[in-house]
Amino acid sequence: MSAGLASIEEICHADRERLARMVREQPTVTREAWDEQVKLFEKVGRGY
After folding, report:
1. Quick one: pLDDT at residue 39?
2. What's the start-to-end Cα distance of the chain, in Å?
3. Angle at the Cα of 21 from the Cα atoms of 18 and 26, rounded to 5 degrees
């Protein structure tokens, strides 16, 4: 393998770290915001 390429393990580790950071930084969703999204989806239909 070329010295410039990351190993599968390194890529997986970086992906896990990136996902964990995204989860930590994700804003919390209030019940009111959730209900508004549900209403919007019901208004436009399911599409199938």
Report:
1. 92
2. 46
3. 125
